[in-house]
Amino acid sequence: MQEQIEKGVEILKQGGIIAFPTDTVCGLGADAFNPKAVERIYEVKKRSRHLPFPLLIADISQLAAVAEPESGIAWFLAKCFWPGGLTLVVPKAASLPAHLAKGSTVAIRIPNHPVCLALIRYLGNPIIGTSANISGEPATSTTGEVEQQLADKVDIIIDGGKRPAGVESTVVDVTGEAPVILRQGIIPEHEIDKACKEYGR
Fold this sequence. Notes:
DHBP synthase, 6 helices, four-stranded mixed β-sheet, 31% helix, alpha/beta, single chain
């Protein structure tokens, strides 16, 4: 497994794209700060360019590179559910490259999977954390499913470790007055609501 991770990191550093396991579904990733690699993911997924990709970070220390300093409910939800299946939509950092966020926000998550976290830590940058599938096709949770959709389109498919749960992350926008669930995923709505109520006490 360590050999696969090291090879994956080397590919990321060279501007390649990789498929890898996360705690939710299989991911398709690139060095987030390499615009050519990010563009290649758009091409592979056949994804509309006006839809930005979520970013995966390994720990809170990487947050400042992509988002404005967090406080309030956003920080509380992060502490409750990170690492894990919660993607937070937050105000983007002013320095964030334009190819990562067309508007004023960015989606961020810290995954709970050792392979995924190792890739990010060894690379030293956030990575694109989109699902490893063609847009409109089912998300993938096994290496075989990734191979069926993307076999000849990625530079490596990393297999091993804990298998993804097969359910995408829950996406919550925390840029407004109250959190809004944009996509119901692996974390149930009632758990998000419970955390919000606890924060409001």
